[in-house]
Amino acid sequence: MTEKSSSEAIRERHASAQARATDDRAFAAWIDGETYETDETVSTYDPVVDEQITSVSVCDASDVEAAVEAAWDAYEGEWNGTSPPERSRLLFEWIDALKGQVDELALLECLDTGKPITDARAEVEGAIDTLEYYASACRTQTSKTIETGDNLHLYTRHEPYGVVGQITPWNFPIWAAAWKLGPALAAGNCSVLKPSATTPLTTIRMAQLSRDILPEGVINVIPGTGRKTGGPLVEHDDVRKVSFTGSVSVGEHVMKSAAEHIAPVTLELGGKSPFIVFPDADLETVVTAAADGIYYSTGEICDAFSRVLVHEDVASEFIERFVSRAKEYVLGDPLNEETTMGPLTSEEQFETVADYVDIGQEKGATLRTGGDRPSDPELADGWYVEPVVFTDVDNDMRIATEEIFGPVQTIQTFGSYEEAMKLANDTEFGLAAGIGTESTDIVHRAAADLEAGLVYVNEYGPILPDAPYGGFKQSGIGKDLGGEALDHYRQTKSVYVNLDDPTL
Ligand code: NAD
């Protein structure tokens, strides 16, 4: 096939998939149970062919106002009086509607983000699993009675905040939306959720699929940009709780805005997570974990294992195997089931990764493989980059300390357990960490010594809704997922009831 014809073929394939995924759909805001058009729109792009998929509403401060008002009306009108079993039933009904559209949602996610279709489908299923966890959790919420003696009945109640503001990033759109909506709704709140302007499609569709199931105004989705839409949401006095997932710099700003009206915040921020290969590790196992940890989702993952620390006794063999594993990734059309790595999500992200590849080389790191665009002419218009491996890296280099958010692995060596821990913890971040070893002693000691909210041993992933997820240090405050997330969306009230001696 000639260069022209192969690039035309992929364009045609994507044009037809885009039409299938978006025809007869309005990608506008979703406010008060209906589609809500705004004056301004922004395009969302398919990063494989760099073409517009569709245009999406941009909400401004007045639209944010309408969404917050609709959410309060829903809360005060119906949702606050809905019993936990009834909330659970409604959430399961919504989940059934989502289950009926898994293929549609996976296709939308694949086109909007560039993720391989198999990963997109798994993430849609992960989102549904998360919602199922919280739909069940509705019915198991308990409070406590505090023993005080016979003259006082002292107990606690958990109450929702009312209306919560939630903001998600572009890298895991539907999954992140489920992490936010699941616990917020289960706890009895109504939500105003702002997805990223880069990848808003599945979040909007998810809300549309709640039509005639959830009461109007329980879920409101306000697509738009950070400044125009996100700013007014977190600044809004009637938003009683803010949950944000994104970068550290924006998280800091969000926290300051929420502080202006004393709204509590949950922050899920960036990372620079280490994976430590001890000398007794099973090399095949740890190569897989370290590769999955940085190359899944083209490295656009908050908890990516972007720093491998390998013991010097096994470093050369590990590096040799890791470099050949990096070369095995199948870069291709994400619509093909065989593709294991798609493009980066946007031109901006592509430029960022290209810059870091240059920065690493300028500072003396050795580029062992990757960093170029693939030679396949079919991929010429997409934001593809071949998986990168750097060695001869140290902690003074920006590639070892800054979040790149792309398929760039940096490998450093260590000589002792203490050195490994020092290197691993020498970062402002603390989202995740990985350990590769066959020794139970090392597993438990390192799991305790690592400053991270999540530790994987001999693997990367999975993420289960059952367990709290969130970072230490500048990787965040509070948790998404697990019972902890539910607690973040509830306030506790203590009730003192005087019990006089009974007189008949
Ligand atoms: P970002 O911080 O640029 O944007 C995140 C969201 O905030 C977007 O919806 C954006 O529109 C919005 N936003 C931007 N400026 C705002 C403002 N002034 N006020 C309110 N909202 C604003 O992050 P991103 O580029 O979308 O996502 C990548 C980042 O997210 C990475 O740092 C990654 O590590 C992090 N992330 C963290 C987790 C986690 O669970 N810890 C998960 C996924 C992504």
Give an overview of the whole structure:
Residues 39-495 form the Aldehyde dehydrogenase domain. Homotetramer. This is Aldehyde dehydrogenase. This protein is α/β, with parallel strands linked by helices and 504 residues long. It has two domains: 10-269 and 478-491, Aldehyde Dehydrogenase, Chain A, domain 1, CATH 3.40.605; 274-464, Aldehyde Dehydrogenase, Chain A, domain 2, CATH 3.40.309.10. The protein is 40% helix and 20% strand. The strands form five sheets. A seven-stranded mixed β-sheet has the order 14-15-16-13-12-17-18, sandwiched between helices. α7 links the parallel β8 (190-194) and β9 (219-221). α2 (61-77) crosses α8, α4 runs antiparallel to α7 and α5 packs parallel to α6 (173-186). Bound molecules: nicotinamide-adenine-dinucleotide (NAD). Nicotinamide-adenine-dinucleotide binds at residues 167-172, 194, 196-197, 225-227, 230-231, 234, 245-247, 250, 253-254, 268-271, 302, 403, 405, 431, 471, 476. Nicotinamide-adenine-dinucleotide binds next to α8 and α9.
Quote the distance from N terminus to C terminus: 96 Å
- Approximate strand percentage: 15-25%
Mean pLDDT: 97
- Name of the CATH architecture of the largest domain: 3-Layer(aba) Sandwich
**Ligands bound here?**
nicotinamide-adenine-dinucleotide
Shape: globular
Number of strands: 20
Helix content: 40-55%
Q: Which strand order spans the largest sheet, edge to edge or round the barrel?
A: 14-15-16-13-12-17-18
Q: What would you give as the CATH superfamily of the largest domain?
A: Aldehyde Dehydrogenase, Chain A, domain 1
CATH topology of the largest domain: Aldehyde Dehydrogenase, Chain A, domain 1
Number of domains: 2
CATH class of the largest domain: Alpha Beta
